[in-house]
Each structure stands twice: as C-alpha cells, then as structure tokens.
Amino acid sequence: MRALKDLIDNGQITPHVIALMKTVLVDLLSCMTCEYELKPENIIVDLEHGTLSLADTDEGAGCSDIDFSAAIHAYGEILLAAANACPKGAGSAVDLAVKCMAGEYETFPEISLALERKRSNAVYISLIIIIAVLLAVLVIFS
User: In the CATH hierarchy, which top-level class contains the domain 2-140?
Assistant: First the structure.
C-alpha cells in the first residue's frame, strides 16, 4: 500500500488508479461527514489488490462543517496531477478535474451522477448503433 503522492511522484499512475479515483474515491468523499484534509498523501492505493482508501487521520476529533467547494477543488487538483502522471493518457479524467476546479459541481454525489450519465450515454450509443445495423440488414434482406 502506497500513498497516491508516491505513485504520482514516481510516475506509477495507471489507468486503473485513475478509474479508482473517479469511482471509489468519489464514493468515499460522498460519504464525508467531517472536514477531511484531502491531499495525495492521505489517499492510499493498494496496487496489488487494486483498491483505494483514505488514510486515517486525527483530524476527525473535532468535527467541523465541510466546505464542499474546497474539497471538490482539491479533488480536481489531485485528479489532474494523477491524470498528468498517467503515461497512457487520461483525457476524461483531465476534463473532470478541470470541471471540478472550475466549480461546476457542488457536491460529490453530483460528480458521481455526471460520471454515471457519461457511462450510460456510451451504452445507449452502442445500442442505437446495433439497432441501426439490424434495421439495415432487415431492409437489405427483405
């Protein structure tokens, strides 16, 4: 298990780590109830098992209200740094990071919904193409 910062610094970010940051990390941050200092040193990645978690810090002792805009901006900065360190490219992660830093999202569940919509759109486009091909085959052979 290693801190995300180490992976970024050593150029060991993979597309799988980017995917974890766009799914697991967003889900973890959606459940935040206390202010948490989001920084690459506090994000732990287990490359062997393909998991991601948040480091346990002592900051939760005095729970304070969460500044979601600051947390989302920090998430965007971290995601951008990881995407830039990914040798295989992570264009959609860069787009998401820029939107987070620009303040286009107000909550982490909103980010999660946007990511889900993007995945759903890809499925719908594939289905439309398959139906169009089947209709063309039907017209040609009828």
Answer: mainly alpha
